């Protein structure tokens, strides 16, 4: 699998597109700044959210049992899945039991993580993503490139082209309103024809056994109320202890994600409607292991608002696909290696350690520190490329020997300025591709000190 | 008595930007510090640490402590190297009171001037539009100014010091504190993204009318200056200590 730098280089090659991507996401970050600025207690809210989530993650087994008990009491069927395979089989089992062949799904990154769509399609079940952005990438046969705005990387001209081909819209149409209306009509048919609805879960409440799904398009409501079967798929970390905690997160989520005060729909599900069935599938898939790790536990605080992506200068310029992971960006660069360190060993390095993600995170995950910790892990597990290991080892030796360091510096300052350009600027010097090297001075600071200061 | 300051000059400043070290020294001496530059210092180990090679950092961290522990204060014209010493050395020292003391007395240059020496105004004249690049480690690790993500009372003593100089106009950026893309080994390992970030920072400054681009970290400036010179943009690059020293 190509590493991040290679995929990022590909993305950046199209400068105009990379700029457009960067600016679209910066616009969202700016909206987030404005929205959070209207809440005087913003930092206090973050602190509270962080505490609630940290408590949850450290009491996960008890709270999950509490959730199960209370959900059962409300007539909700609760299932436990150890990994993606089990998850998919459980979902398929429920659908099969009800002879369902057509399913609508509201956006859920968890089902992306499990590759549920291709799995169900192989079982002969039609599964339609109903979030507009996600439907667009589904029609392209691609995964989302962003947690909240799955098609943020696609231009309206491309959507016009795609819809012309797949939905029969007019050729060359680019008007967002026209295209959205076409998608709406198309999705409406799918909603009406579906026999079951699958949703994700934003927050599940241990105290009540209910859960909340946040959408801007109302697709979760439509998808679950037009038929008699609702399957909600959630990662075990989506839990919060009490109903009272919910307001903290609902105030933070949409503001952090898109700069809205609240999502258009925050739908609360507390048991099935009369005659209907409701299932919740709880997925672990490596989460317990993260919960047990002192270094990375806090990454489970994540509420998937994607603020870290919108602010990340690397994500904005390299696009979601450059991460090659279900969850991209800073949080994805922590969760990815936790799943498979070898496969995702380049992700913790796809970061300039600027720390903006940490400051923007509504649940105060120390993202850039965890990325740094992952770098150490990558080194310890022997997954760091040889060239990096060697150069750092050599640098370490040199820096422990002041004389060697001084000598090397002196040589470089004597030699480099005399070298012809082609020896300095070639494919071996990544620095020099788009940047000049500094002008090497005649003497080092140390030499200047000796001459001008110490002998005064 | 004048505080005895151990001057901590990062390796790349020592080798490539001696004028920054000289300006830092001059400014500190101007304000009455008794400055000494310990000969045997080399590098704080940040490049290795940021690559995950912690084994290579341990000996350097212990060396650093030995070299600097006897001073009243350790002052360095680079936020990121200071942050390395203060925030990332812990794993090499267990219950070491000398290290705890070192942490408390290690300062970034501007921070030392404002917080420790209590300087809030600089004399002299520097009639230029100055663009201040807020280096990330100084900003978000050392909290030397308020970052744009946090909803807190804005502060920024370095900016205030700059603005106190007669003739200085600090330019206003569209993205006040976005990363320039240097990031140590990131600048090479992720060359494409790094350079695009640098280019974007430079053009934000260009559009804001920056004549002199400055920062508390020379590393960010090395990266941006590399881009400025390659693209032959009319922006001068100076470390903040150089501006201060010129105004003495």
From TrEMBL, chain A:
The protein, known as: Lactate utilization protein B
Stored SUPFAM superfamilies: alpha-helical ferredoxin (SSF46548), NagB/RpiA/CoA transferase-like (SSF100950)
InterPro entries: 4Fe4S_Fe-S-bd (IPR017896), 4Fe4S_Fe_S_CS (IPR017900), FTHF_cligase-like_sf (IPR024185), Helical_ferredxn (IPR009051), LUD_dom (IPR003741), LutB/LldF (IPR004452), LutB_C (IPR024569), NagB/RpiA_transferase-like (IPR037171)
A Pfam family recorded for this sequence: Fer4_8
Recorded superkingdom: Bacteria
Keywords for the protein's UniProt record, in alphabetical order: 4Fe-4S, Electron transport, Iron, Iron-sulfur, Metal-binding, Repeat, Transport
UniProt domain 4Fe-4S ferredoxin-type: residue ranges: 342-370
One GO BP: lactate metabolic process
Gene label: lutB
Organism the protein comes from: Gimesia fumaroli
One of the record's GO molecular function terms: 4 iron, 4 sulfur cluster binding
PROSITE patterns hit by this protein: 4FE4S_FER_1, 4FE4S_FER_2
UniProtKB/TrEMBL annotation, chain B:
GO molecular function terms noted in the UniProt entry: oxidoreductase activity
Residue span, Cysteine-rich domain: 5-85, 130-224
Source species, domain of life: Bacteria
Organism lineage: Bacteria, Pseudomonadati, Planctomycetota, Planctomycetia, Planctomycetales
Name of this chain's protein: Lactate utilization protein A
GO CC field: cytosol
């Amino acid at each position: 699998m190509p590493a991040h730098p290679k995929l990022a280089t590909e993305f950046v090659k199209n400068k105009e597109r990379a700029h457009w991507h960067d600016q679209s996401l910066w616009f969202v970050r700016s909206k987030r700044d404005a929205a959070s600025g209207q809440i005087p207690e913003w930092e206090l809210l973050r602190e509270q959210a962080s505490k609630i989530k940290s408590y949850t993650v450290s009491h996960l087994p008890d709270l999950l049992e509490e959730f199960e008990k209370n959900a059962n009491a409300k007539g909700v069927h609760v299932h436990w899945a150890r990994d993606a395979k089990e998850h998919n089989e459980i979902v398929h089992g429920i659908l099969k039991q009800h002879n369902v062949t057509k399913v609508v799904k509201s956006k859920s990154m968890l089902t992306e993580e499990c590759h549920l769509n291709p799995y169900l399609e192989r079982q002969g079940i039609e599964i339609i993503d109903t979030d507009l952005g996600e439907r667009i990438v589904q029609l392209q046969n691609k995964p989302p490139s962003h947690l909240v705005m799955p098609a943020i990387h696609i231009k309206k001209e491309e959507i016009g082209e795609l819809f012309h081909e797949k939905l029969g819209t007019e050729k060359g149409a680019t008007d967002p309103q026209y295209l959205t209306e076409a998608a709406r009509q198309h999705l409406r048919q799918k909603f009406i024809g579906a026999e079951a609805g699958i949703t994700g879960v934003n927050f599940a409440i241990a105290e009540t056994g209910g859960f909340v799904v946040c959408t801007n398009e109302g697709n979760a409501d439509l998808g679950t109320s037009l038929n008699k079967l609702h399957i909600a798929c959630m990662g075990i970390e989506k839990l919060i202890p009490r109903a009272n905690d919910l307001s903290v997160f609902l105030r933070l989520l949409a503001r952090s994600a898109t700069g809205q005060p609240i999502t258009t729909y925050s739908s609360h599900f507390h048991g099935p409607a009369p005659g209907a069935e409701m299932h919740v599938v709880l997925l672990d898939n490596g989460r317990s292991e993260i919960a047990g790790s002192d270094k990375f536990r806090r990454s489970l605080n994540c509420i998937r608002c994607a603020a870290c992506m919108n602010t990340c200068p690397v994500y904005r310029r390299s696009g979601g696909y450059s991460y090659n992971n279900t969850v991209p960006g800073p949080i994805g660069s922590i969760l990815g290696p936790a799943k498979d360190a070898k496969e995702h060993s380049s992700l913790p390095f796809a970061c300039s350690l600027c720390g903006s993600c940490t400051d923007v995170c509504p649940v105060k995950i120390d993202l850039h520190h965890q990325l740094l910790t992952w770098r150490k892990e990558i080194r310890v597990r022997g997954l760091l490329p040889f060239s990096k290991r060697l150069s750092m080892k050599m640098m370490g030796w040199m820096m422990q020997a002041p004389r060697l360091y001084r000598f090397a510096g002196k040589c470089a300052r004597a030699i480099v300025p005399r070298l012809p350009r082609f020896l300095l600027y070639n494919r071996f010097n990544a620095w020099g591709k788009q940047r000049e090297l500094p002008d090497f001075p005649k003497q080092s600071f140390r030499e200047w000190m000796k001459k001008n200061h110490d002998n005064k | 008595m004048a505080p005895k300051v151990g001057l901590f000059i990062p390796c790349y400043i020592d080798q490539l930007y001696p004028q920054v070290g000289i300006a830092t020294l001059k400014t500190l001496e101007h304000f009455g510090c008794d400055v000494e530059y310990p000969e045997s210092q080399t590098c704080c180990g940040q490049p290795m640490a940021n690559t995950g090679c912690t084994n290579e950092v341990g000996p350097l961290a212990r060396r650093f402590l030995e070299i600097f522990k006897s001073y009243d204060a350790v002052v360095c014209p680079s936020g990121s190297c200071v942050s390395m010493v203060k925030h990332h050395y812990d794993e090499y020292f267990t219950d070491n009171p000398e290290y705890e003391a070192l942490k408390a007395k290690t300062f970034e240059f501007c921070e030392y001037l404002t917080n420790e020496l209590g300087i809030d105004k600089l004399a002299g004249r520097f009639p230029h539009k100055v663009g201040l690049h807020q280096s990330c480690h100084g900003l978000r690790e050392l909290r030397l100014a308020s970052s744009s993500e946090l909803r807190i009372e804005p502060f920024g003593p370095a900016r205030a010091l700059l603005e106190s100089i007669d003739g200085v106009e600090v330019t206003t950026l569209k993205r006040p504190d976005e990363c320039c893309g240097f990031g140590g080994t990131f600048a090479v390992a992720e060359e494409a993204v790094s350079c695009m970030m640098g280019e974007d920072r430079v053009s934000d400054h260009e559009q804001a009318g920056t004549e002199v681009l400055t920062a508390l970290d020379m590393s960010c400036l090395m990266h941006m200056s590399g881009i400025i010179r390659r693209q032959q943009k009319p922006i001068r690059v100076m470390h903040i200590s150089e501006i201060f020293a010129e105004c003495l």
